[in-house]
Amino acid sequence: MSITATEISTGATTRAARTETATAPETAGPRPSFLPLIVDVAVPVGSYYLLKNGFGMSTMAALGWSSVVPAVRTVWSVVKERKANALAALILLVNVVGLALSLVAGDPRLMLAKDSGVSSVIGIGVLVSVRLGRPMMTQGMKPFLVKGDVARAAAWDRLVAGSEAFRKAERTFSLVWGTVLLSECVAKAVGAYTLPIDTMVWLGTVVTIASMVLAFLLSGRFAVVPMQKMLEHEVAAEAGKQS
Prior knowledge:
By secondary structure, the protein is mainly alpha-helical. The chain has eleven helices and no strands. Helix 3 packs antiparallel against helix 5, helix 3 runs antiparallel to helix 11 and helix 7 packs antiparallel against helix 10. The N terminus is likely disordered.
């Protein structure tokens, strides 16, 4: 990728990398963003209906085979990163255990309900981390706000140490995500045992997407935006002291 090339010390390589970036097709950029959505959503749902309606497989078999690609993707992400990824490992564990229980029980509804187990375990973990004073979701939010800037990183540390408003917004971010994930769990678990299986296969995806959108909107409104403003104010104040 061009961003890697710019890190090479030679000026010629840097200029070449910039030229490559400038001339790259605009359509190449969105690929990484859409790939997880395709693999995690389109492939499982589409393969379920293809195997069940197109190849005449049983509901149980179709659900099982349609879970293979997401499981492989989870394993691959762990291997590729070569580091302990708590959330990826947790999702993998819940998927494997849920699949095993479903096969033993022979209940396709349990296979649908086990997906909500991922949300519930992660949601509880996030809420517990807030209670312990170490909000789990901060790890994903901080790089977005700091943007790799040294001044913003220093401002973050000062605000965490001395601003209760900043710490409250930080806790709110994780509280929103934990609550939404638990709510998603309840909705999908209830639907798995009260609605037709064919309906829940696509409706579960809709619930997940709606939950993510809601979490992004609420956490952005009540946590990210206030924290961003406080960071900018802190950076400006520190720059004024040094000038």
